[in-house]
Each structure stands twice: as structure tokens, then as C-alpha cells.
């Protein structure tokens, strides 16, 4: 049988999962950690380079600021600012111009320096001395004068002289200083101009990948790493927009710029508010991490390949015993449905079936053992076991061979009349009572129980010391049983208790004693607990049969008086049970009464099938009854009432037959001389009996019925014939016509003549 190795595949896949998952996770986290670490290092490097660039640029700017401060605070500068530009003061103005040349000569990249006097309206710069300034330049200078700061860096384009006479536009960074510094209304100002390319030189000294730029406080581009701002590939406009949303002085963030993602780092100067920005491509900064990623991928694939080989070999080795067991299961079951399941599902199903089979077999064995034990006690109580069989049964069922103090209880249902149960429920009720006994009597005390016909027998053993204590314990136990049965089943039971026994061999006699004790319920009533030694002590030994009561009962039955017969029967049973006699004597008295009732039924002509339609044993049924009420009901239902019904029916039939015969005679011979005696002789009954029967059936006497019938015939003759009244009277055997007329008028209310006249 070809099978699929599903479990082998599962083991293999699970081994791959266990082996490869840590490798893949380790490779992934290693690559992620390395990428993050490299990016962090790059960002830190960019931040340091950006900081160094800021330091270089600000060092130049601060140096320019310092030397210009020294210049404007020199006595010469202060004194010249108070002079008009005149020829007489040329020497002083020349010295100022020389000072301006010295500022440019200090190697700070200063492109031009000019000194402007607002009040005197003169200007000194590289180009010379200007006593009057054109309007365009004047407006620009006036704008400088309006700046609120005493010292400020700005961006501007200025006209400068080239090698010829042409002017070119050069973007500069200007340092504007008011003079005097502490005055709110300056007299003039000094402007130092640094070309953008000087600032750009400082930016080009950085060695980091990417680009760098400087923005002023208003986020306008000042310089871009080695390039002109207008031609920059760095998209400064987009960068300035991004920086507008970041208010921190130092920071970095990743964004999409141009054709890819970049990391932007920025620093804002506390000196002049400029912002230093560096832009590094993410792809360029993670180039090393990609190399690490490829190396990690190759290493992980190598390890996974080794794991694949090891997992396959290990899975086959682990699967080998499972395969043998699975093959064995398939061979044993022979079911094709197992081929569609994996190995362990098939094995599990097989084990479940074995377990279920074992459980069912265990239940069957347990049930059989229980039945065997019940059968053992059934034969034990019936006395059908030989000594050897009894000893083997005791050993097999784990029962003691010797008992301490034991008795046998016989439990029987008193009656089912007045309950919700029917006679066919008796077996189930006995089974329920047996279960209640098992619940109430402890297992160590209950040796065994069995249901025999209508009796539940149970053998109980106890170590209670003393006769009184043991008997009281048995009585209390019996009371609990009665209460439980009454509570759960709502029926009454009686319990018979045998004498004490010391060995299981005495159980048959004890069971008979307990059943014998229950027979005394005829005298003591229902729901009683009867100890055999107590009820036998009550027996006097002499029988007193109520002969006179029996005769009264026979006469009541013959007279068909059912109520009186039932009353006398109740008195008979009371007289029998009130005597302190043994149960055998009870049975004899009841048997004598049954014999007399059967003889009465036969003498009455009662068909036997009306009493015994199923070939029953009447004596057996009678002796099986348990209470006086049951005996009374049994006699009434089976003997007395059937006899009375038969006699009543027979008498009614006979009365009807006699009455019908008399009526026929009257209708046939009404015109003859008829008497009661003559009619009674014709039906072979006594006249008095015929008179009583006829009156009972017809509701009138013989003479009245005869007179009424003759009167009816007279009416017919008066209406349909011409017979004379005298003739009619003679035909009806009236000795005197006047008697006929008198009788007719008395009954009809008119004379015969008047009647004929009225109806003819």
C-alpha cells in the first residue's frame, strides 16, 4: 500500500523553520543595525564637518568685525568724521584711505571698504574720495543708515571697477557698522565687503560627500559649496521652504530632494543668525551598508543551505520509527480513508479506536461482573448454590467468607393504588429502590443486593456492638430508606428484617425470614418495618375463623347487595387480622374464604371464564397480596362483584322472560276466563313470584294490566263494529253489563254509548 509521508514533510518544514528563522532574523537585524549605525556615524560626521565649517566662516567674520571695530574707534577716524571734505584736510582723509587699504590687506578676503558720513555727505572707498554721491547710491546708503542693528551682516550686489572701464556685478557679503556705535542717530557708517567666492572657498574645504550651503537669518542663500547660487543643483528654494518648519537651532532630517532621498543637517549661528546646511545623499551614505547587506545575504543563504541538508537528513532519521508504526496501523486497519490523513492523525485515530474499544469492553466487563454478582446473590438467596460454588463466588467477587453481624432486608412496595404509577412500572420502581439502597447503605456495609420477583433483597453486615445498638442501627437505616423512597418516588414501602447471621451460607434462610416478616402487613398495615423475631412473638398459635361473618357475606352476595357484601367482607378481614395468629394461619383463613366464594360462584351458575379468563392461580394471587386493603379489593374485583353482576343480570333476564310470557297469554286469551294462578301455572312459577316479577317489570299489577287491555279491545269494537254493549261485556267476561259500563266510565270518563257516538 503506497502512502504519502505527510508527517515527514511536516518535520522537514518545521526543522527548516527552526533552523532558518534565527539565521534570517539574525541577518536582518544585523543588516538593519549596521545600516542604522553607519547612517548614525555619517550623520555625526556631517554634523562635525558642518560645525567646523561654521567655525571657519565665523572666525573670518568675527576677525573682520574686530578689525573694523578697531578702525572706527581710532582717534583719526573719530576726528575725520567731524570734518568737511576740503582740500585743506586732504592729508587726514588720505590717512583714512590708507587705513581702509590696510583692512583689505590683512588677508581676510575683504573686497572693498568704504566710510560714509551722513551729515557731511561724503564717502571714501577704494575708488577715491566722493564729496557728492549719486541718487541711486545715496538711496542704498540711506537704507544702510536705517538698519536697527549697530553691526549687521547683509547680502548685496555692488558696482565695482574691473580691469577696464566696464562694470561687473559681484555678489558680496557686507558688514555694516554704525558710527558712533552707541548712538541711535549715527553720523555715518563703515561698510566692509567680502565677495561670495571668499565664503565659498571656506565651504570648499570640507571633505564630506554631498553639498553645503549658507543661508542668512531670513533663510536666503548666501553661498553654496563651490558653486554659484543660481546654477546650484541643490535646489536651495526647496531647502529654505523645508527649513521654515524647523525652529530648532541644530537638527537634521531626511527628505526627498531632486532624484532621491537626502539627509539635511543644519546649524543656526548665534552670532549673526546665519544657517549652515549640509545635504548628503542617503544612497551615497549607505553604500557601505549595502555591501554589508550583500555579505550578510550570502552568509545567510549558505547557512540556510546547510540547514536544509541537515534538516532533511535529521527528519528522515526521526521519521523512521513513525513510518514503521504508521505502516503497521495501515496494515491492521486496511482502511483507505487513513491514506488521506497524516501519520499521526491516523495513529491517533487508531489509538482512539483502541481506547474506545477498551472502554466499551471495560464497561461490558464491569456490567457483566455486576450482573454476575447479582446472579450470584439471586442464587444465594434462593438457596441454589452448592457450598463449593458459594465459596468460589465469594472469592471471585471479593466478599468475606465470615460475617460479623449480618441481616437480610426484604423491601417490597406496599401498593401502587393512589399513585401516578401503573402495574407495568413496578419493575422500574424496584430498580430505582435498589439504586436508593446502594446510595444510602455504605459500600463496606452492603455485601450485595438483588431483585427477586417483587422483592429487593440486600445483605448487610455491620460491626455494631450489642444487640440493642445493632437493632436500633438497622431500624434507623430502614427508616432512612423509607423516607428516601417516599421523597424521590412518592410511594410507600415496607421492610422485613431477618435474624442475625454469621456466614453467607445462612443468607437463604434469612431472606425467607425477611419475606415471612412482610406477610404480617395484613395485620399491621402499610409502610412498616418488621423484625421477624418481633412479629413471630405476637402469634398465639390458635386459629379463630369467623364462620358467622362468612355466612352473612354469602347471604349478601346471594341477595345481590354489593354494598352490604363489601362491608361484611371488610369486617371479615378485620376479624381475621385482629387475631394474634401466624401468617400461615392468615393464609388458611383467606384460603377458606376463597373456597367458599368459589363454591358460591359455581352454585350460582357463573361461568368460570368470567372469574379466571387467563387460567390464573387464584390461591397464588391471594397469597401474594400484601395488605388487608389489597385482599379486600382483590375479593371484590375477582369474586364478589362478578357473582353479584351475574346474578343480577340473570334475574333481570328471567323477570323479562316471565313478564313477556304473561303478556303473550293476556294478548292471546283476553276474551277467556284468565286468572293469575292460571297464568302462573302455564309459566311454571308460583303465583306470588309471578305477581312480584310482573309488577316489577311492567310497573302495574296483573289484574290492572288485564283490565286495561280488555278496555282497549272494547274501544276498538265500539269504533269498528256494531256489537251491542251487552255483547261486548259478555265477550270480555263481565258478569254484569252494569259492571262493564261502570268500569268503562271510571277509566274513560264517559259511557260506552257516549264513546261510540263520539268516535263513529
UniProtKB/TrEMBL annotation:
The keyword Transcription appears for this protein: yes
Transmembrane segments: 7-31, 291-314
Source domain of life: Bacteria
PROSITE patterns registered for this protein in UniProt: HTH_ARAC_FAMILY_2 (PS01124)
PANTHER family referenced in this protein's UniProt entry, alphabetically: ARAC-FAMILY TRANSCRIPTIONAL REGULATOR (PTHR43280), REGULATORY PROTEIN POCR (PTHR43280:SF10)
InterPro entries documented for this protein: Homeodomain-like_sf, HTH_AraC, Tscrpt_reg_AraC-type_HTH
Name of the protein this chain belongs to: AraC family transcriptional regulator
Keyword entries, A-Z: DNA-binding, Membrane, Transcription, Transcription regulation, Transmembrane, Transmembrane helix
Pfam families per record: HTH_18
Gene3D superfamilies named among the record's database cross-references: Homeodomain-like (1.10.10.60)
HTH araC/xylS-type domain segment(s): 660-758
